[in-house]
Write the structure tokens for this entry.
Amino acid sequence: MENKYNFKGFISFLKIFKDEQTCREFLEHLRWGGKPVCVNCGNSEKIYRLKSERTLKCSKCDRNFRVTNGTVFHSTHISLQNWFIAIYLFSSNKNGLSSCQLAKHLEITQPNAWYVLDRIRNVMDKSKQFDEILEGIIEADESYIGGKNKNRHWDKKFKYSQGRSVVDKKPVFGILQRNGMVKVWTLDKLDGVEMKTIIRTNVVKKSIVCTDEYRVYRGLKNKKRFKHYVIDHSKSQHKIDEFYHTNNIENFWNFIKRAVTGTYHKVDKIYLNKYAKEAAYRYNTRKMSDGIRFIELLKECVQTKLK
Ligand SMILES: [Zn+2]
């Protein structure tokens, strides 16, 4: 499967997923591997296809079902091909895709485009990749992401909103495995106990954790758990012994901020968690080709059960 879907760009993508039927058959293949399973009772014997092609009938429970039942594609007025295009464009644009941009591409309304992107973000948020436990050299760091103070009207500016103040923005905490993946959490406030608990439950024992000198990380060092390297930025220190630094996670924060200011312009605090997870998802799949990343995300779309 890998080679065919390692397509060069959007034109090749459209040639493969050329119509509604092709997209539906592909989704059925991803979900059931060629042998449909009734979504109501789990039976896979004697499943019939009705005249409309996309509807299947189970001989055991006598109920009808479609490949989209129970997935993000269920009961929407968006065609499957439009969903495929949205997933492709959204996952292949490095800095994300706004609902206005998607609405133009698909010739649908902006609220509909927003709905599509929100559903895809829900899938990214629940991605299996975030179940992974990190190990080796870990960079842990926090950053404030949100509205820009300099763009506010003078009487709406928040004092002391730069750096580690919570008034204007929301803190995002992240841990990144060297040469590996990143995991992120949006917090209500920076809390040392909570942040250290996150590290302990998401990092394999005996790993090496690098942080800056911020006090919330104090107490992380423990013979049985982690080695802790503190990079003291206040003393212009940027690394210890070549290997121990937090440069990669700091680059990741720049990556999120570029998407937020460049593509989304501003992000409401309520949605920050989803945007942070979206950025982490992009970062973690950065080495995949656009085609393979699309297939992986599509698989998660058809396998993730959303409320
Ligand atoms: Zn059934």
